[in-house]
Amino acid sequence: MTRIGLISDTHGFLHDAVFKHFEQCDEIWHAGDFGPGVAEQLAPFKPLKGVFGNIDDNEIRHQFPETLRWQCEDVPVLMTHIGGYPGKYAPAVRKELATTPTGLFICGHSHILKVMYDKKYACLHMNPGAAGNQGWHQMRTLLRFTIDGKEIKDCEVIELGRRGVR
């Protein structure tokens, strides 16, 4: 069993509560737009996987790929920053999902929290929304969930409070 803390679009801001909410997690996954200093704060705390986003500088782009594919327990995972959502995927994501079996597709970018099953590609889509202060979203959000063998379960939405409020 692997407990995951999923975060995205921090844009250089990491609320202190993230550490409390991800304390029981085994890994943290970041779906891009880290911004300055965020990876350096998260990496010593828990094992960190991530992809770079459109606002990330060369330092982050050298540390993290644009697209990441790996196996978590028995679930094939695909993560990229700009990916869309079921029925509205970016062309490269649509091609990837059509050619390589994926159990979990993760992206960020939109600042819109979504967790939905995609029947066409037989995978779960997750976007944790935005945890930072930059953007048009009103509520900062995270996701926490468990992968147990082939099962993705115990998904929790965590609200960190309104954007701009410490």
Characteristic key phrases:
166 residues, alpha/beta, five-stranded mixed beta sheet, 4 helices, 10 strands, 15% helix, globular
Description:
It is a single chain. β9 and β10 form a beta hairpin. The strands form two sheets. The protein has a five-stranded mixed sheet. Strands 4-5-6-8-7 form a five-stranded mixed sheet, with no helix packed on it. It has four helices and ten strands, in the order βαβαβαββαβββββ. The protein is an alpha/beta fold and 166 residues long.
User: What distance separates the N and C termini?
Assistant: 33 Å
**Overall SS class:** alpha/beta
Shape: globular
The description of the largest β-sheet is:
5 strands, mixed
Low-confidence stretches: none
Largest sheet strand order = 3-2-1-9-10
Strand content: 35-45%
The share of residues in helices is: 10-25%
Radius of gyration in whole Å, from Cα?
Answer: 15 Å
Overall average residue pLDDT? 96
Number of continuous helical runs: 4
What is the subunit organization of this protein? Answer: single chain
SSE succession:
EHEHEHEEHEEEEE
Topology, number of strands: 10
